[in-house]
Amino acid sequence: MDRYDRNKLLDFIGESGQEKISSARVLILGVGGVGTNVLMNLAALGVGHIGIVDYDTVNITNLNRQILYDMNSIGKYKVEIAKDWVIKFNPDIDIEAYCLKLDSDNCEEIFKNYDILVDAFDSHSSVDLINRVSVKMNKILIHAAVSKAKGVIMTTIPFETPCLRCFLNINEEEEKENETKPSGAISPTVSMVASFQAFEVLKLILNQGVLIKKEPLIIDGLLGVAIRPKIYISEKQFCPVCGLPLHSFEAFEE
C-alpha cells in the first residue's frame, strides 16, 4: 500500500494533490515546541522539501512540550536531532538543516529556496526580521505565537494582507522585555497551534480552503474557544514595512 493512501482518499487532496505536496518547499523557522509539531505534521503529510532553522541545543525544560526530543537529545543541536528524526520517519523527504542564528546577512540566501515560510520563533527580534524579509522577498509567512493556554495564528501574503508589523496591538517594548523572561507553555497548546499552521501550509500548497489571513485566529485551550477578532483599519497611518494601512483588533475578553 502507498504511504499516502489515506491522504489521497480525501477529495481535496487526491492523487494530484499529493503530487503537489511532494513537490512543495517549506521552511520552518524554529524547531521548539511549535516548530517540531509542525515538522512532524508536514513529514506525515509527505511535504517533499523541508528546511529547518535553529541554533539552540535541547535542554531538559524543553521536554514538557517539544515531544520530538527525549532525554538522549539533551545538549545536542535541535536541528540535528530533528533532521535525523525526519530521515528515519520518512526517508523520501529532502530535509535541510540550518544550524545558525538568522540575521539580515544570511536569511535572504536561505529564504530564496522555499515557497512558504513557517514562523515558529518565540522572540520579537527574530519575528520582526523574518516579517521584514518575507515582505521584501514576497514570501508567504505563516505566523504563530503561544502564551500560556492561548495561541494566535495568521497567514500573511505580502501586499495582499497586512503583515505582522501592520498590527498596532503588538506591544513591542513589552515583547522585547519578555524575551529575557521564561514563560509557561504546555504541549497541548503548542500542538494545537502547530496543527493550524500545518493546515495553513496544506491549504496554500493545494490552493484549497479558507486561509487565516487579514485577521488572526485566537485560540484559548482552557476556555475551549476560537475567535476571529474585529479588525479596525487606520485611514491615516501606514505600515513602515509593507505600506498597507495600520490595523488593530479588539482584545480577547474571557
Strand order of the biggest β-sheet: 3-2-1-4-5-6-7-8
Number of helices: 8
- The assigned CATH architecture is 3-Layer(aba) Sandwich
User: How many beta-strand segments?
Assistant: 10
Give the overall silhouette: globular
The CATH topology is what? Answer: Rossmann fold
The chain-level structural class is: alpha/beta
Q: Strand portion, in percent?
A: 15-25%
* Secondary structure: helix percent: 25-40%
Compressed to H and E, one letter per element, the order equals: HHEHEHEHEHEEHHEEEE
Low-confidence stretches: none
At the first level of CATH, the class is Alpha Beta
Task: Count the domains.
Answer: 1
Mean pLDDT: 91
Fourth-tier CATH superfamily name:
NAD(P)-binding Rossmann-like Domain
